[in-house]
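Re: that chain you flagged

S.,

Sorry for the slow reply, it's been a week of failed gels. I finally had a moment to sit down with the sequence you sent. For the record, here it is as I used it:
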Amino acid sequence: MKCSPLNNAFWAMLLVVGVGLSGCSDNGGDDAQPTPPTPTQPTPTGPSQVALWLTTANKTVLFQKQPLTLNFATPAASSTLPTITVDTTQTYQSIDGFGFTMTGGSAYVLHQMGATERAALLKELFATDANSIGTSYLRVSIGASDLDAQVFSYDDLPAGQTDPQLTKFSLDPDRQHLLPVLKEILAINPSIKILGSPWSPPTWMKTNGNSKGGSLKPEFYDAYAQYFVKYIQGMKAEGVTIDAITLQNEPLNPDNNPSMMMTAAEQTTFIKQSIGPALKSAGLTTKIILYDHNTDRTDYPLTVLADAQARQYVDGSAFHLYAGSIDALSAVHNAYPDKNVYFTEQFVDASGNFAGDLSWHTNNLIIGATRNWSRNVLEWNLAADPSNGPHTPGGCTTCLPAVTISGNAVTRNTAYYIIAQAAKFVRPGSVRINTSVPSNLPNVGFKNPSGQKVLIVLNTSSNPQTFVVKYRGNDLQVTLDGGSVGTYVW
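Prediction finished late last night. Pasting the structure tokens below so you have them in one place:
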């Protein structure tokens, strides 16, 4: 189902006072039919200092503002409730944004929608008004990912041919679907940050001449560096600013189609001898983010960062969590605190369930990654058709997108709500602030650029939990159902 517009005088009045996005309810991706529209909720009975936006594990509430009056008060002297203390005087990293990877497949299914329907969905996803979730960061593939309909690069040649001068380089494959949709998104949010990641260079640059596996031939390191330069410059000419690049998606995974192996030693050499100098020579300020793989191999980013010549060109390291622990991000941050860390990919499995996935992803990514210094959190993938396609031969068949698109019908899945709980309020430029963590109540706090405080709390227990939010000596007593996520804004 689609989110109903606010189209009468009553709801228009609520928009003015900031009640906003209620009634955006879908099936969460783990049953066949969407749930019925959420009934109109009553207005709060009085002024409220704190707004609560809620998603429940049982899907009875899906990212809706609650009609509650929540105010801070003088602490109860005898309270023994679990307490989350919010301290804005202790700050950590700035936030670049929350969002998704918009694969070529995502762009394709979005581009097949009617223009009016697509415009409404993109506005809901990327705008910052009351009826939108404010997605603020996108990852795109440089060439094809495994969630494109077919494998391609920007310089494909017949077998046996090479093009070290890149005379046949062209962004034409992206002009069919990806660039048109990106331009529509940029018209809605011109400041959205975009990260580009390659799954494979052109096959003629690789040791095995194949889109899958292999390594980059040393004689083509400089050519591949220029490939990135041409990509960044070409996208800029199309009106798309690439804020950052990673150098290889999952460099220790040769099994995707496309994919490529790139060891830490190879990436170090490529950075310091080729891509770093190439971007500098071209006058490009696009960030270089290394690694882009699982947290179980922190030796990889630490090896690259240990090389002073490579380190001078590097902004930071990117991580996935298909293996390892999220606190590994802090280990890398602590070793090189002047370098950033990012969280760039995690998919929701179509065989999973809403409650379990909502809890795991919120705990490990929205809360866990940011509490361990990540400047962003990205879910994989933005959009797909009802069979989780398109994908390359051998590409992921069980990656549940944030939104499933069938014609003009839209189903909002688990990742949509995971990201919405943060993206709408933790705007780019927000700063993480210190919060205490009681048992069963993992949480993270932010101060956004407008001065609002944002506290995202997950109840990991199966039962309702009453707790206290303590801020500047005053207490707010609230209750959160088991497995539910609440975003408190004041």
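What I noticed first: Residues 1-45 have pLDDT under 50 and may be disordered.

Talk soon,
D.
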